[in-house]
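Lay summary. Proteins are chains of building blocks that fold into shapes, and those shapes determine what they do. In this project we predict the shape from the chain. Here is one chain we studied, written as its sequence of building blocks.
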Amino acid sequence: MLFSMIRKMFNTPMPVTREQVVAAYKKLLGRLPESDAAIESYLAFQNMGQVHAVIQQSAEYRARNAPAQKPRVLRNGPRPDPRFDEPVRIVFVGNCQALGLAALCNAMHPQVQAVGYELSGGYVADLQKQRSTDADWRDVDAVWAHPHPDWAQWLAQQPAEFAAKVRTLPTIDTLGFHPDCAYVSVNNQTLKSPTGAYHSALVLWAYGQGYGVDQTLALFREDVFRHLQYFDYADVGVEQLVTRSFGYGVPVADWLPRWHSRGVWMHTINHPKLYVLSDVALFCLQQVGLQGVADAHEVLPDGLALSACWPVYPPIAQALGVEGSYSFKCERSLVPAGKSVHYLDLREFVERSLAIYARYRPQALVCDRLQAPQFVSLADWLAQAPGRAAARGAPGAVSVSANPYAGLPDHQFWRRSVERVAAGEVDPVTSARFHIGPQDKVATAGSCFAQHISRTLAAQGFHFLVTERADHLPVAEQTARNYGVFSARFGNVYTARQLRQLQAMALGVQPEPEGLVWQRSDGRWVDGLRPYIEPEGFASPAEVHASRRTMLACVGDMLRGCDVLVFTLGLTEAWHRRTDGAVVPIAPGVVAPTAHTDDFGFVNFSFADTLADMQAFLWQLKAVNPRVKVVLTVSPVPLVATYENRSVVASTAYSKAVLRAVAGQLEAQFPWVAYFASYEVITNASNRGRYFEADLRSVTDDGVAHVMRLFMKHFAQATVPSADVPAVGQEPSTEVERATQAVSAVVCDEERLDVG
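And here is the predicted shape, written in a compact code that computers can read:
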């Protein structure tokens, strides 16, 4: 079947575009086409299959994809392999994902011989049998296993040299897309559903209540899903997955943005799509020193797709921004003869499910999901409003009032909340998702504007978390060397990519980038990751690296130890090193003449880039600090300069629009993330520009005071009266004065860009 698909691909005429040729070059050769003529030469081909074939036959492609002639690095230490042609044996054991991982590894590298074992409930017995009888277990290079309660018991019985080759992989599972999907058992045996192994918890609950088909269908609507907290499962499920994977050293947080970009990445609650398993398989190969073909999943059949596939219910799909339906795909064994696939619509699925349950007493049907408080209270909740338990027309029916805006609060109308309100009293913050107490350890990071928040918190008696201190130095020297300006001495963090990079280094997820140590014209050295953290510079590169390592350790302490992290999104423009993607806060040539500026390129991160970086950061943060909450702000300070060939005004608008949209998306996605409207306070039309200094970009003391007053009012409402921060025009107290001092006192690397 696979060969026929390939033949069809090569024989079907499909016009080739320039964009497709460029994409093929980037994918297969890692570069752009050498000339327009090279692009033109491919446009005469019938389809992209032929284009790929020609490129893959080139010497450049073969050289690029040849296996590296280097020793394999195994879990139990480096082991030179003088016989490169010797197969690399890998065993996967565990659940149904083990088979897909083995198939992917075999396809990804010609040297690999991988085998997968899907083990039953008799886990130890199955393992003992396979270990003693199967030749694939002899002289293996690596064993990857899914966690199981009996795994540690079995592993303890194995020889030490074998146990050293074993690592644990997290199971890729989440309820996020399919919160209603569940298992049901009878007499400790899994009960089959109309589609296979999976049941609807809601349908089972309806059966226990004596509901008929129409009554059950009426439950499939948004308000019921909200009562059952189905909309919360997405974030909780991802956080749990990231936390588990981080404990096993598997970087799922780095892969999640790519998975999310493709929509629904799970077939069911525990069956990921093949491209998801592909990332896991590549990781496993890398751990034994091999680089696999990244797109092997595109030509392999997805074995888990042959099983039942659960739909994403439309109200949940809308909230997640993906396609939704009520089409339930049956597993292969339940497909009628003569058909390759079979779906049930919602009514048919409910009818067949109730017919299966009717064979048993409700008490005999066991489903852990129904023990949740939301299900226990569902009957009472439905009874609270007349007609709530009855059908409201078809699922998804909408009730319409005469004027949906009637009765809305004042803050939702411009005239009532902006036009008729004094400029200094405009409050675009409606409510805070959580409050910050005086005992909460608060860390701050971000652009220059973030320093105002840290100073205000400290001045108001809150616990501003500082993990990198120099108490042995005089206070004046501490300040001059940026101790206490930030939670650790990481300097200004302008972009989401820079924040994610800092986190990855601090947590040991990625190594410290090589180099990035530059010599100034005065002979002193600077740290490219934080160029102005030491105003006098460092004496040597070794001193730079030592200071950087200290800082990264302190950042790790900050991420693990803070109760609240306040991050101010500042920019989308950045400079990164072309070889490894390392991001620096400012163009190297601005800092030092020896910075090898040719190694760096300009990048302006898109909405998708910034969102993916922030998502990965937040997932990783939650994995190491489950109690943390995050406040996001957007800096109102315009760009000093832009490297884009356009007006700095247009670039500022682009940057702030992207950052504000990302912040809004993150607040909607993560219940523990809140947005604070500092950008809106400073830039809204009621101020008529009065919150900017003469340079039209630096924020005035009055503007900062307004922002901080609202921050304390909403986020510290339970502990600090809003009157403690003065209104605009009032004479500030000594403490607030320190907290809202002139912007010129704020450390801002970006100011160096203005060379005019």
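What the prediction tells us: Residues 648-669 form the longest helix (22 residues).
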